Amino acid sequence: MNYKELIEQSKSTRDFKDKEVPQKIIEQVSEYSSDSTTIFPDQKIQMKLLQDGHEVYHALEGMAGFNGIMIKAPQYILFSTDNTKDHQINVGYYVQNMILKLEDLGIDSCWIAIPEDGEIIKLALNIADDKEAAALIAIGYDNNQVKVINRFHFGENYSKTDMKVVENNVATRLTMDKIVYLDSWGNNMSVDRLIEMKMNDIFHYAVMAPSTYNRQPWRFILKGDHLYLAIRRDPGVNDELDLLDAGIIMLYVELMMRDANITGKWHVVTDTKMDGIPQNYRYIGFYSH
Ligand SMILES: Cc1cc2nc3c(=O)[nH]c(=O)nc-3n(C[C@H](O)[C@H](O)[C@H](O)COP(=O)(O)O)c2cc1C
User: Fold this and answer.
1) Which CATH number fits the domain that encloses residue 282?
2) Residue 175 and residue 70 share a domain
3) Mutation test of ligand 1: which of 108, 212, 215, 250 has the most ligand atoms closer than 8 Å to its C-beta?
4) Mean pLDDT, to the nearest integer, of 86-94?
5) 278 alpha carbon to ligand 1 midpoint, in Å?
6) Predicted confidence (pLDDT) per residue in 96-151, tens digit
7) What's the number of domains the chain is made of?
8) Where in this chain does the record put each Putative nitroreductase TM1586 domain (predicted)?
9) How far is the CA of 139 from the centre of ligand 1 (A)?
């Protein structure tokens, strides 16, 4: 998969065609998931295709989605896991990886926020198991022919229907110099410095990560060969959403570090305090060798 291209083109779809995703694609995503690694390799995450979109939409209306506004889609995928400490970090990381795979296979999607108590969702959907409902996404084909973001490649033949307006989703994101500090909190790194350190590409793509309400809560401190991550806590956004947002950006950083041939991995240390991080931020961990 060309992750840079996928990340660049990724966006939330909220208006779907009335067309189902073929079973074969779901199987391909499922196979991909069994070959993928996560931050907590021992945590098992299950994917469940919710086939009857109409039924799911009505069952979850008023309950799932920002302010209870459910997104209408032909199908959904529910992700469940054991309710272990910080499990949502891994769920964010894992689900976003599946979203990139779906996109690679031509499928559009959108995250849908669910209540902290996943039991409510399971009850509404008549699912009886001992797992925690941890995340939900809508899947299908984008109905909005105007906003989509395929790039134009010269020399290729595009029909009018395939031609989509180019809109780079970077426009709605913070610039990298607003999210990376050097050595200590508040000491913003300039883009030039990031270029000098050959880290500009990593953050250029990282800021494209989706986040709840597009609030972009991530801040990094680059110190020596460690990259520390903190997530802002915002009123109206629960702890689980903070951790999902953390997991998503951790996936993007890791993919881009790998692309830049920087070896390392994420170390989650949510129990530890980190000096200098303001109280309204939550320290998640660091990336290093
Ligand atoms: C954990 C999570 C939950 C989300 N829940 C919803 C939701 O319930 N409804 C919605 O319309 N968008 C939801 N989103 C999508 C974000 O609003 C979206 O990613 C952000 O605005 C950036 O836009 P983009 O994904 O098109 O780049 C969610 C995103 C995340 C990461």
Assistant:
1) 3.40.109.30
2) no
3) 212
4) 97
5) 25
6) 999 999 999 999 999 999 999 999 999 999 999 999 999 999 999 999 754 444 33
7) 2
8) 4-256
9) 13
123 and 243 fall within a common domain: no
| pLDDT average, residue stretch 74-88 | 95
The best mutation among 8, 110, 231, 240 to test binding of ligand 1, ranked by most ligand atoms within 8 Å of the C-beta, falls on 110
Domain match, 131 and 210 both: no
The residue whose CB lies within 8 Å of the most ligand 1 atoms, and thus the one to mutate among 211, 234, 238, is: 211
Asked whether residue 206 falls in the same domain as residue 260, the answer is yes
The verdict on 52 and 177 lying in the same domain is: no
Q: Are residues 193 and 104 in the same domain?
A: no
Per-residue pLDDT tens over the stretch 219-236: 999 999 999 999 999 999
Q: Identify whether residues 91 and 205 lie together within a single domain.
A: no
What residues does ligand 1 touch, defined as CB less than 6 Å away? 11-12, 14, 65-66, 71, 110-113, 169, 210-214, 241, 244-245, 248
CB 230 within 8 A of CB 180: no
Q: Which domain does 248 fall in, by range?
A: 169-288
Same domain, 62 and 106: yes
Would 164 be classed as within a structural domain? no
Q: What is the CATH classification number for the domain harbouring 115?
A: 3.40.109.10
